[in-house]
Amino acid sequence: MVGWPLCDECGRTLIRAPVRTVGSECSDGSVRVEVIPVYRHSGAAVRLVHQLKYRGSVGAGRLLARSMIEQLPPATGALVPIPRVFARRVVTGIDQTAMLASLIAEHSGIPVVSDLRAGVWSPRSAGRDRRRRTPGRFRWTGRELSSPLLVDDVCTTGTTLVAAAVAMGLQRAVGLVATSAIPRLASGTEPVFG
Q1: CA-CA-CA-CA dihedral for 106, 126, 138, 119, to nearest 10
Q2: Residue 59 three-state SS
Q3: Which of 118, 126, 138, 173 is the most exposed place for a label (fewest CB within 10 A)?
């Protein structure tokens, strides 16, 4: 049952994911985000994220947030959840990153700053390859923060984290995510994410 501690079989499918760096070149220069993932996007981790994201399961959110707290960088000054577009919040009834940030803040005492704004609608990126993904469009309405930590549920290509960093005017940022799709090279030279 979602919300209860995982059984041994499901627990064995939770695989720690390595830290990685994502980035891009933009008109303001180079933007790099160090991504601190908790789990590889596979097994029970995928089911937990889906329960949180599409069913609003607070229990799944608590399990993920508990693991994310263990990975908090010590110098974190504020948690900045990457918001979901308005249309998806209405359809699903939840902004999963706001919930994760709130649960992390509850136990860490680090404040949540919800000054990053998403648009009304954007095409879904889930399941699309790198070429067909649309980076999120964000607007920063807050002040400059000391050591902000971007909070997201999943990092696949990193375009969402980079777009958030650009909106905040950051050239270097750190993002904490529940799961990360680990890049692997397939035949040819294009990175494939799985």
Answers
A1: -100
A2: helix
A3: 126
* Confidence tier at 84 by pLDDT (50, 70, 90): confident
Q: How far apart are the C-alpha atoms of 83 and 50, rounded to whole Å?
A: 16
Residue 27 — φ and ψ, nearest 5°? -60, -25
Interatomic CA distance for residues 74 and 175, integer angstroms:
13
Alpha-carbon Rg for the chain, nearest whole angstrom, is 16
**Parallel, antiparallel or unpaired: strands 183-185 and 191-193:** antiparallel
CA 80, 93, 121 angle in degrees (round to 5)? 70
How distant, in Å, are the alpha carbons of 98, 105, 134, 152, 191 from that of 131? 28, 35, 8, 21, 11
- Pairing between β-strand 148-155 and β-strand 78-81 as defined by DSSP bridges: parallel
pTM passes above 0.70: yes
pLDDT tens track for 164-185: 999 999 999 999 999 998 655 3
Q: For residues 97 and 70, what is the distance between their CA atoms, to the nearest angstrom?
A: 17
| Nearby residues of 134 by Cβ (< 8 Å), 6 or more positions away | 122, 123, 125
